[in-house]
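Weekly modeling sync, notes
Attendees: S.R. (lead), two postdocs, one rotation student

Agenda item 3: backlog of single-chain predictions. S.R. asked that every request posted to the team notebook include the full sequence so nobody has to chase files. The rotation student volunteered to paste the first one in as an example of the format we agreed on. Action items at the bottom.

Example entry:
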Amino acid sequence: MITRRVFLGSMSWPAAALAWPGNALPAAAARCAAAGQPAPSPLEAAGDDFWSRIAQAFTIDRSIVNLNNGGVSPSPAMVQNAMKRHLDYCNSVPPPHALWTVLKPQRETVREQLARQFGADSEEIAITRNASEGLQICQFGFDLKSGDEVLTTTHDYPRMVTTFKQRARREGIVLRQFTIPVPCEDAAQILDHFEANITLRTRLILASHVINITGQVMPVKAIAALGRRRGIPVIVDGAHALAHLDFTIDELECDYYATSLHKWLFAPHGTGLLYVRRDRVKPLWPLMAAEEVLDDDIRKFEEIGTHPAANFLAIAEAIAFHQSIGPARKFARMMELRERWADRLLAHDRVRLHSPQMDGFACGLATFEIDGVDPVALNTWLWEDRRILTTAIVHDEFKGIRVTPSVYSTFDELDRFVEAVELVIRHGLPGA
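Predicted structure, as returned to the notebook:
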């Protein structure tokens, strides 16, 4: 019999150490309520020791400062160990038996966990390889004809824009893109831009929950409602929102939502989630062909041929890790980390933030620009000279450096980043 003591003892120390704080926030709130005191914030209830334990749960090389977690995040040790365990099993017994007889049914447990965590029915959740796959299922899954228009902003993810452009070349559909202010802290203004660009020929809308190049949080619930009123399906790109912002999918009242799980959920690389409202499953074509018997089954979107089971099954450990932090506490920490570097850089006159700062529009991802400094050159210098990884953003409407720390990032790492940027602000890029 495996006892709790034996189970925790079999885990790496950092993962086991996370077992204790899962109920810290409600317990602290109850103590304050009993004493007639205000409930603590998520960060107050956690404390520095908690975040130290979170940091130690990751195996990231600390000789490098990774501020590009928005691209792909590392997974904590407990997720890596789970993936290795499943992979080892698949290679220690006949793989057809391991993959299709033993491990495939366990995928349903992961599906149920994802549905419970993020507010959906398990029959509305497909497990995909990334946000692009989930979004392209939706982008290609609607029947469109020549002259039909699809609508999105000029800030949406390039791969998704490329998807629509291919349909335009192949089928003659029309892609309409429009600009939004950078940054924008007025939901009505954003909604007005969408509505103003809808025409009689608009058949599909793509909207990002969080804009990947600025961290702009979009009013996707209102955009989805607009689409319903006008009879236009709305696809939501949630690549940077799920497990980052504190929300569940049912709160958005949308019909289609796709995201990567290897960004903010810290699941294995090559994992994603597609939500399709149950009554919308049947009309949507899968990206790869599925038998007719699956027409009304969310699993038709998972018909991709032979694929590893390990990546998908280890999502379960990523969910457990996410729950041990708590969604509210996680988002609060992301905002605290963002403020740590952004507030200090904004004290300099030459620095502009291309990201919102108001609650409801801001997240842990943000982009800044230094007047007179080429962001590509700055990005290169930060990496080559200081081993700090960021992302250079060069867009027709603005440019800058995107910074995406994560819950394992330390204040010291962010301070080192700020000090390096301040050196450039004061003295210019070395060698420039």
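Discussion: group reviewed the output briefly. Residues 1-25 have pLDDT under 50 and may be disordered.
Action items: rotation student to repeat for the remaining queue; S.R. to check formatting next week.
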